[in-house]
Structure formats: C-alpha cells, structure tokens
Amino acid sequence: MVSYLFVGVLTPVMRKIAIATDVVDRPNSSHKSHKKPVPYLGGVAIIIGVITVSYSASLFSQFTSSTFWLATSVLGPALLLGLIGLWDDIKNLPPLPRFIAQTLAGVFTASILIITDNIGNPTGSSIFDSIITVVWIVGICNSINFFDNLDGGAAGTVAISSIALAYLALNGDQYLIAALSVVTAGSTLGFLVWNKSPAKIYMGDAGALFLGVLLATLTVRFEPTAQTQIGSFMIPVFLLAIPILDTTVAVLSRIRRHLSPFQGGQDHLSHRLIRSGFSRKQSAFILWTLSAFFAGFSMMLSKQFLFNDISVVGIGIVLLVILLFVFFKQRDS
C-alpha cells in the first residue's frame, strides 16, 4: 500500500519534470500509435518507489548487513539497467549498448547466485545454471521492454505477475522474494493509475528495463515447490507467459520479413488485437486477463490446486499457448 501511494503521488511530479525538460515520446516513427507527445519518466517514479520502500521497510524488519547485501544484489543490477534505460529515453541509444548492459547484469546475477548457492532451481551444473540465468535475464528484460507498447499493458501485466510471485514465494517461506514482489506490484499499480488508457505518462525504457531485470532476477532466485522438475522450470515461464509470447511473435514476424528483431513495429500482441477490432482499453484488459490466467496456473502447478493430475491440465495449457500463438501470428501486418 505504501509503494502504491508513494508511486501514485510521485508519478505526476515526474510527469511535470518530463514536460519541463522535454523528455517526451514523440510520435515520430511508424511503429508509434499515439498522436501527441507523451511524457516519459514514469519509470523513474517506479524505480524510486521500489528502492525507497524496499530499503525503508528493511530498516523496520530485523535489518542486517546480510539482508542489505541480499536485497542489493537484486536491486543493484535492476537500478543499473534502469539508469541505462533513462539514458536511452533521453538520448535514444542504439540497441547494442542496451544489450551489452543486459548481458553484464545477467552475468553479474548468475555469478552471485552460483557463488552464494542461491539459485532457485539448479540443474546440477554450474555452467549450465549460469547460461540459463544469463539467457533468462536478458530475454525477460527485453520481453518486458518490448511488451511496453500499449497504455497500461506492461504495468498491469507486471503487477499481476508480481502478485502471483509474491503468493508463491510467501507459501514457500521465501520472504525476501515475496516482499520485493509486493513492493513491485504496489509500485506498478500506483503508476498504472496514470498510465492506463489514455496514458498521461509512459514508463519508458527506464521503467521497462528496471522491471524486466527485477522480475527476471526474482524468478531466478525463486525456488518452486512443484511436484516435478519440469513443473518447477515451467512456473517462472507461465508467470511471464504473455510478455514471452509477445516477444516470440514479434521477433519471428520481423525475422520472416528480414527486419532486425530490435526494430520497432506494429507487430506486438496489442497491435494485433487492435487490428482485430478491439479498442486500446479492451486490448489491455485482454492481455491482463491472459496474464492472470497463466499466473493462476503457475500457482496451481506449485500446489496442484483443484487437480489430482496436473500433467493433463498442463498439456491443455500448452495447447492453449499454441492456439494463442497461431491466433496472433495470423494477424501479421
């Protein structure tokens, strides 16, 4: 609640600063669908909210140096990527510096997790665990950044995934992950008040990269309690299924058209929904609903809630993902 109120109050302040300093997103390229310039710096409000509330709360909750460094190992790489994203919002960086920074954040996080034996679901091989961690962090970081293409779409989806992750972590007695997930959910919901359609402010790359690294790191640290190894691996994937699906569809579409995967375009899930006749608000609601559905399934994987044979349901969910992929791919521009 504190992070929700804090970011909700801070966001319009950052909006005024963005307008005063001319840090705005202008509709100056074909892949942008808004008609008027929209201020950035919403991501700065999210970053300040998450970091301030997290460290402030730790001071009132058995604060120790180990807790401080544990939280910093999660928030530090996210802050670094957030600052690079802010630089990109202001200066419009090419893709390569962002990719290098994401990779370095992934390598740093993988090193910390392997050294401290704090990775959530290890394979038994340090090298393989490290590779998976780096690929996951870079992939999710880009997925959240790509997914931020619709008013309220990314903020709402991140909030839903964070709430589900907090539930899973709390039930698994992983309290630091649960706490950071709750703060992330509150911050994104506070920002969503101003970012829902029609958006008064965007999170920009600062917010998208920060949230991407933060969610990727938390899900890597999270130790699932599924009954099977494959179920444990699938829980983080289903938590972030819609951003992953969005990136997969967009990247494959661009490769098919001989375009750079990092090039912007009207080929994301939101654009395809809008071309199918849905409004921007309806498209955001559909994406939130799908995100909630898959997040709910990740919780069922952990508890086998309501189902004795979760594998049968799992096959059905995989088929649903395939059907969604086909549905959205058929709506190529």
From TrEMBL:
Residues spanning the membrane: 38-60, 66-87, 127-147, 154-170, 176-194, 201-221, 233-252, 284-301, 307-328
A Gene Ontology cellular-component term: plasma membrane
Top-level taxon: Bacteria
Listed GO biological process terms: cell wall macromolecule biosynthetic process; cell wall organization; lipopolysaccharide biosynthetic process
Residues bound to Mg(2+): 145, 205
Cofactor: Mg(2+)
Classification via Pfam families: Glycos_transf_4 (PF00953)
InterPro entries according to UniProt: Glycosyl_transferase_4
Keyword vocabulary terms for this entry: Cell membrane, Magnesium, Membrane, Metal-binding, Transferase, Transmembrane, Transmembrane helix
Main location: membrane
Compartmental location: Cell membrane
Membrane topology: Multi-pass membrane protein
A single MF term (Gene Ontology): metal ion binding
UniProt name for this protein: UDP-GlcNAc:undecaprenyl-phosphate GlcNAc-1-phosphate transferase
UniProt organism field: Candidatus Nanopelagicus limnae
